[in-house]
Amino acid sequence: MLRIAIQKSGRLSEDSLKLIRECGISFVSSSYKLKVEASNFPLEILYLRDDDIPGYVQDGVADLGIVGQNVLVEAGGSALEVEALGFSKCRLSLAVPRGAEYNSVADLQGKNIATSYPRLLGDYLAGQGVQAHLHTISGSVEIAPSIGLAEAICDIVSSGSTLLGNGLREVETIFRSEAVLIAAPNLSPEKQQLLDQLRFRMQAVRRAQR
Ligand code: PRT
Ligand code: ZN
Predict the structure, then answer these.
(1) Is the full-model pTM beyond 0.80?
(2) Domain ATP phosphoribosyltransferase catalytic spans what residues (predicted)?
(3) What is the ipTM score, two decimals?
């Protein structure tokens, strides 16, 4: 039996469930059950917070998971990306107040930057030779400049309307993300075979959508 962890409720949930169903896997999901078993494929589905999924997969509590690449890379563990899934596309970007002067990333030298992605941002800044003070906050990052916490932010953007609504201007895209299927590094041969079957079905679903 394979165990897959998906987001309980959020931007990935609906498409994750839809993809599993489109693979021909039947299960009855209900909002209060955190674990369900499929009836026609040896698969158990766990509903978790997305941030916890890479860790559970790395530790083998779940064999597979569906998360954004942003969460996988930020987690920095040993869970492996095995399949890009094409949904929940977004980007991780730096933004500054609309009126602030900004010519290049060098302008962030010595500045305070608020983010929920200190690893991704730290790696990017290091690659650019820029040193800044990173303030890690877990939500409502876009508010930081207006309350004097930071001169810039680094957060997920999709339409751009949240930045606009908070008087911010996107200045650099540092990472592009989409939902991915991840797997534990050392699956047994039996589980690996089930994963191959599941991936084959997922690829067929994606090809049919193109
Ligand atoms: O409760 P849990 O921890 O499970 O969920 P969560 O609140 O951490 O995550 P959730 O559901 O918001 O997002 C899950 C994943 O969806 C993210 O990790 C991304 O991979 C992906 N994704 C796609 C997004 C967005 N689009 C997105 N727009 N994640 C977040 N946003 C937020 C962003 O943080 C910002 O506040 O939406 C706002 C910007 O949106 P726009 O359209 O105004 O630019
Ligand atoms: Zn989360």
Answers:
(1) yes
(2) 49-203
(3) 0.98
